[in-house]
Amino acid sequence: MPGGDGTGPDGQGAVAGRGRGRGQGRGLGGGFARGPDGECRCPNCGHREPHQLGVPCYDRKCPKCGSPMTRA
Ligand SMILES: [Zn+2]
User: Total domain count for the chain?
Assistant: First the structure.
């Protein structure tokens, strides 16, 4: 059935449907799920740490150089 006389439209529709249906979105979501709340980053040395809820990045200090960290 796929593409007997089918030119573009059928094929494209099928591909797009599959791509989305398979959950690329889910996959990406899972990948990013870890860091939606963000990371804190040291502007001085570039050290990064996961952001902790209730603790503003600028309230934390870089463990390496002691600079106040910023939101990444
Ligand atoms: Zn630092």
Answer: 1
d(Cα 18, Cα 20) in Å, to the nearest integer?
A: 5
55 is in which domain, residue-wise? Answer: 37-72
Distance between Cα 28 and ligand 1 center (Å) = 30
User: 66 CA distance to ligand 1 centroid (A)?
Assistant: 6
User: Quick one: which of 51, 37, 32 has its CA closest to 59?
Assistant: 51
Query: What whole-number distance in Å separates Cα of residue 16 and Cα of residue 24?
Result: 11
Instruction: Please enumerate in sequence order all residues whose Cβ is within 8 A of that of 58, keeping only pairs 6 or more positions apart, or say none.
Output: 68, 69, 70, 71
In this structure, is residue 44 part of a structural domain?
A: yes
List, for residues 25-57, the tens digit of each pLDDT value: 444 444 444 445 689 999 999 999 999 888 899
For residue 36, report the distance from its CA to the centre of ligand 1, in Å.
22
